[in-house]
Amino acid sequence: MTTAKDIMHTGASWIPAHETLDRAAQMMREQNVGALPISANGEQDRMVGILTDRDIVVGCVAMGHDPSKVTAGDLAQGTPRWIEADAGVEEVLEEMQNHRIRRLPVVENKMLIGMISEADLAQHLSEDQIAGWAEKVYSRG
Predict the structure, then answer these.
(1) With contact defined as beta carbons under 8 Å apart, do 35 and 103 qualify?
(2) Which of 9, 38, 87, 134 is most buried, judged by most C-beta within 10 A?
(3) What's this model's pTM, rounded to 2 decimal places?
(4) How far apart are CA 97 and CA 132, in angstroms?
(5) Cα–Cα separations (whole angstroms), residue 75 to 100, 129, 141
(6) Is the alpha carbon torsion for 93, 94, 99, 105 positive or negative?
(7) Residue 83: CB atoms within 10 Å
(8) SS3 97
(9) Alpha-carbon torsion 24, 26, 31, 34, what sign?
(10) Which pLDDT score is estimated for 45?
(11) Mean pLDDT to the nearest integer, 43-51
């Protein structure tokens, strides 16, 4: 059985909730990622959300706010979602589809070990699986 750990990309890292959005953008650039899980107090801590590059643009810059003064925690909203490393691909797809999310943190022993993104799905799944996933995640219904 193919698992979340098999298809994730490694090297995901947290951004503490108190960290500013300009620092978050720098981390995204350095790591070549579009999203960072937000932790309550830093490394190996409780996840309180996920910050995306789009969140920074739409939720801060486009609103006229200064990204050096707004924190990752200020934009954390909703219930964070994640998946256990040993979960099967069908469970990964179901979690992403049911919650209409495009990125999913992977945890093992309560520790962040990776992230699954659209690119990871495209590399590891069949065209039919990708089509079904995209239809459910991107539909307006």
Answers:
(1) yes
(2) 38
(3) 0.84
(4) 9
(5) 18, 32, 25
(6) negative
(7) 22
(8) helix
(9) positive
(10) 66
(11) 79
